[in-house]
Every structure is written in C-alpha cells, then in structure tokens.
Amino acid sequence: MKSALATRDTGNETEKITVNLGYVDLGRMDLLVREGFYSNRADFIRTAIRNQIGAHDGVVAQSIARQTLELGLRVYSRADLEAAKAAGEMLHLKVVGLARIESDVTPDLALATIGSITILGALQASAEVKVALADRIH
C-alpha cells in the first residue's frame, strides 16, 4: 500500500521560512556571497542547513528508526486509504519531510482511515481534510 517515496528534496517541493539574523552575521554572509563562495544568501543558508543536518546524520537516522518514521515524500492516495478501510486498518502517518494526502480523498474517508498524523516537515491536503483531521495532527 506504499506510494512514491523520495528521500531527497526534488526542488519543487519546498517550504518558505523566515530567519532573523544579526547584522554581523548578515554582513559575513554577504561577504562570502560577494567573494563567490555562494551564489546568493539563499544558497548560503541552504548549504549551512545541509551541513548542520549532515553533522547530525547518525542521530537523525537513529531517531527515525526508533520512532518508525518515513523519510522523504509520502503520498497517500484515495486507493491507499480505501484499501486500508477495506482491510479494517487504521493508519498512523509518521513522516519526516512531506506527507501529501491526494486531493480526491474525502474528509469522511480520511477520518475513517487515519488515526493520527505526526509530520516533521509539511502536510499537504485539502483544507477540508485538514479541518477534519485537526485533532489527530501532532
């Protein structure tokens, strides 16, 4: 019942965040950009984040395994949820990355098949499905 799973960011699946920096750090970053080490501020920030995550790879891998989390992109289709419903299964979604509940999934089907959602990253679903599952999202 598994759908597509990607372990790397595909470039078009991103989330925008805001970061406040001190002026000195901002100036140092701009200097590195100007000197050609990075193409722009965003490139610097993405590289810094990847380096920090890489420095903690072992801890992250252990935590993912211990908590039985899926890593990357996990898509839950109407067919996936209908199969779970037919089998009498209640799904507990645990994803590090992006979990997507396809747009043809109704709130009733989601309620009947999704017991809980733990997302470290982002959840994409229709507004109606998110409202229906609001008390199950952690």
Automatic annotation (TrEMBL):
Pfam families xrefs: RHH_8 (PF17723)
GO terms for biological process, alphabetical: regulation of DNA-templated transcription
Highest taxon of source: Bacteria
CDD domains: RHH_NikR_HicB-like
Coiled coil: none
Protein name per UniProt: CopG family transcriptional regulator
